[in-house]
Write a structure and sequence with these properties.
2 copies of one chain form a homodimer. Chain A contains 9 helices and 17 strands. Chain A has 2 domains: 2-126 and 305-335, Medium-chain alcohol dehydrogenases, catalytic domain (Quinone Oxidoreductase, Chain A, domain 1), CATH 3.90.180.10; 130-280, Rossmann fold. In chain A, helix 6 (227-233) links the parallel strand 12 and strand 13. The mean pLDDT of chain A is 95. The longest helix of chain A is centred in the middle third of the chain and has 14 residues, at 130-143. The radius of gyration of chain A is 20 Å and the shape is globular. With 336 residues, chain A is of the alpha/beta class. In chain A, the strands form 3 sheets. In chain A, strands 3, 5, 6, 7, 8, 16 and 17 form a 7-stranded mixed sheet that branches. Chain A has a 6-stranded parallel sheet with strand order 11-10-9-12-13-15, with helices on both faces. A 3-stranded antiparallel sheet of chain A has the order 2-1-4, with no helix packed on it.
Chain lengths: 336, 336
Amino acid sequence: MVKARKYVVKKHFQGVPKRDDFEIVEQELPPLKDGEILVKAEWISVDPYLRAYNARTPIPYDQFSYQVAVVTESKNPDYPVGTRVVSHKGWRDYTIFNPTVKTDDKNASLYKLPDLHGLSPSLGVGAVGMPGATAYFGFLEICKPKAGETVVVTGAAGAVGSIVGQIAKIKGCRVIGFAGSDDKVQWLEKELGFDKAFNYKTVDILKSLKEAAPKGVDCYFDNVGGEISSLILSQMNDYGRASVCGSISAYNEDPSKMPKATIIQPSLVFKQLKVEGFLVWRWDGRWPEAFAELVNWIKSGKLKAREHVTEGFDKLYDAFTGMLAGENSGKAVVKV
Amino acid sequence: MVKARKYVVKKHFQGVPKRDDFEIVEQELPPLKDGEILVKAEWISVDPYLRAYNARTPIPYDQFSYQVAVVTESKNPDYPVGTRVVSHKGWRDYTIFNPTVKTDDKNASLYKLPDLHGLSPSLGVGAVGMPGATAYFGFLEICKPKAGETVVVTGAAGAVGSIVGQIAKIKGCRVIGFAGSDDKVQWLEKELGFDKAFNYKTVDILKSLKEAAPKGVDCYFDNVGGEISSLILSQMNDYGRASVCGSISAYNEDPSKMPKATIIQPSLVFKQLKVEGFLVWRWDGRWPEAFAELVNWIKSGKLKAREHVTEGFDKLYDAFTGMLAGENSGKAVVKV
């Protein structure tokens, strides 16, 4: 008998999620049937979308997110013990799967960890996982950047933003990032090769942007929404493209009382801008394509995949709220 | 010697344009040279974009807009006396052109009035002119509506909105319009065949929309911007498309202090919406394609092109501010 533990969300969050919005529940798992595997989580992800989906998910619910797990017991010859898998089972340690049963339920499906060529398996929930696919497709497919263009990224030190900026550099763009601390700004400029980065909390955003992008902005990858997005859109060039990945600035707000920001329609009309929101699951079938390229870039040193690691299953709540508060540079992940 | 009169804009408007922001200037026109024509305006257009471009145009400037004029004197065999032409010469009565000189300057070029098959030449600045092309391309090319989809139009009783709604009906869509008076609502529902119309000044917009579009909104044609747009975008279906044509709600505001509205990024992300602004000159070369179809629809009774006619060159200012105040149903035009 294996005992599994999981986090159940009992309440809809009000503002910053509270520790007692969650409950850790134990359950005994049954013996494996033919075709099934037992997996143990090694790396569990905490991401902004967990906050955003809270209001949209009926409670109680098991806290979903991506996790990398290793097969510890197997009655499925395609998944021998030691195989690593990625699933959306989220904040739980042990899970039984039957990989041969096909399902459209994102939370019940899994895939084998891509070949990481010796890189840390933790990347399976980061640069070579959902956040990597988000950066890759959300930027390349929606912004369609061209060499020489100017790209602005907000949430630039986050799991997705830091990859977007580096992909933009690989594609020959000029890259400007906004992040929430001077340390992050240093990291973006000195280590990740951003042409310019700013601490949005301390600079005059419009003035900084005009100086850093004197020829205007062609592509905007928007992780945050709100007033900074209105300002950036006002500085875009004709036919600029904005990819809207998230709006973390509003995730802790009451969804029935979203904040206001300067209207963007005049910028959209006069510069003929295209602004498109996306969910990465749109490109589900194509994730392996992104993963192969991302692994190559990391192995060749063109892309740095920094992680902000918290240790311990019991620390998931702290890692989550820390990430929401912007304490991480790079991908926030929990080592179980 | 012919004396021409034109309106010169002397000031950048503050709020609603004032009569003395304009000056009527007379000038004597020289005798025609070979290749030139003298034309006399018959119909002059007043449109929201004249207000919007004021802050973006160095003063003083001649008030541009579209006009239909007739050739009264000709030294160009391709343009005999009586030929009708459409130009962007705006608020002036007599003008000399040399049509053989090609120019990229929109304000100096002209084209022959399309064959209207007996319809009023005034349509050359309306349903079979720039506003018609705006409705046709801005809706069909950007919203890409499919039969059975639900379309929402704001500024629905205006020159562009009223045509967009009717094109949407022709394409088999369910059409909901927002306009600014009960009379306009009546006209949209009873005469133009909108499935539902609302007076945005008196109804609960969100509630009305949920009732009229229980299956959500697929396409949004946005003439107004501001809070109503945030509300409509919040009711859109996955992969909805919004075409942003204008933001008249903000045109009388100080451009350095645009109003705020509820942020739209969460709607964009979770519904994967695409929002695109446009200027109709993008499709310059294709206008004749729209004009041919629009004439057919009008001749066959599928599309009604109502005009709100003001008489007299001296009334251009009143027609303009009346249009900005929403006094018109259909295309506001001045008969010279």
